[in-house]
Amino acid sequence: MSGIPSPPQVSSARSVSPTAQDVQRPMPRRSLLLITALVSSMGGAAVYLAPLPALWRTSWSYGLLFAGLGAAQLVVGGCVLARPTRRRVLLAAGSALAVVTLWVLTGLTGILPGPDPWTSVNTAVGFIDVICVALQIVAVAGLTLASAFGHRTSRSRLSRVLATAAVIPLTLIVLGGALLGVTASSDGFSGAGFPGGTAQPRNLPAGQRSTVEYCRPDGVPLAMDIYTPTSSARKGDLAPAVVYVHGGGPGVLGSRKLTGFSATLVNPRDALFVPLLRQLNARGFVVASIDFRLTPGTPWPAPVQDAKCAVRFLRAHAADLGIDAGRIGAWGSSGGGHLSAMLGLAGPEAGFDQGQYLEQSSAVQAVVDMFGPYNLADFDDTSPFGHFIVQVGLGSSPAIRRAASTSSYVKATSTSFLILHGAEDTDVTPRNSIQFAEKLRSAGVATTFIEVQGTGHTMATPGQHPSAEQLTDLVADFFARTLS
Predict the structure, then answer these.
(1) pLDDT band at 212 (very low <50, low <70, confident <90, very high)
(2) CATH class (in words) of the domain with range 209-482
(3) How far is CA 241 from the centre of its chain?
């Protein structure tokens, strides 16, 4: 009836109170902290992805694992940049944490089996795995903070400016670390890690460079470049051989390569490599240049163990290579001179002979040590960079430093030594070689010491005396005389 109000309509749908799912969480902002954390995560992924082909040749299982982790980090990082949600940010943090966990289980503790997958990252610099993991730790911390507090917009302008100013140094460090890591792990984009398709030592072509795998310690393949003389240069059926050991502190930096980032770190020119190679090949010598595992990624004494394995490899394949197993020498500069001296002095009793070809001797008959350190337990007069490299490679333990020093192994031996040192060297001061030569002579070892005027931590300074050309002739004559 008109005038009578109609009853209120009752909805058939039930009233639902809001739940947590109905509340829209504010999304993290694309702040400088979030972007820095993402760059750190994706930069760290690029570091271990750069040498992935080398890792694949070493271990396909770890290759798959690293490829999966890298793809996850890059995809999730891209998604966060496109639309930063809290779930995506936490997922990016979790993927970075997975990389840190993998490093702890493999490189740090060795709990997981198989060859250390981080060795392929450390083929130019021995601590790039640490830089990679540090980037991931920064990513975990930054992404976690961005997830928890990155949505706040109520701060004053001053507080935002101060927060940005505080993050900028971290951003620069992250960018620098990522750039160094990718450059080193890819060896300057010239091809990182271990070579594929290496030759067999039998019947290598004369007058050419051939790359062989000489040893595989703990499942890690190690490369050796063999430079054979032309047929006309050979003086008989069996040739003498000389092993070149690159420098770079106590096995921290460098590789056998003549180009790429690792070559700039340990310039082969400082050791007169190219002119000496030409002279030795012309005189009928076989020259072998080796890679070895770098410290601290692989702890000392891995470099000297690998160098000794290289000598044993040459003896085991002497017939294939056409070399005389009784005429093998070694030379190197800086850390390479130190390792070459260890080859001439540290016998089986030192415990460095491990791995393959143990039926062969690792002794060499002649050593050229160019400005190598002598006593690493007494190394206070070096440059700050020298301090840093030795600290990184060996740590502070006096026992380890003594065990890594040639001073601990000087004894009477038939090995002949030629020691060259720049008078102005501040990285390894001349007193190292002076004391080394004196102790060798006191032990009755045939030793020649020459202090080169006008040069420092190199044998190739214009105007030095003797000149680089004279030193090249001197070293070649020394090997010709002692290995004749």
Answers:
(1) very high
(2) alpha beta
(3) 26
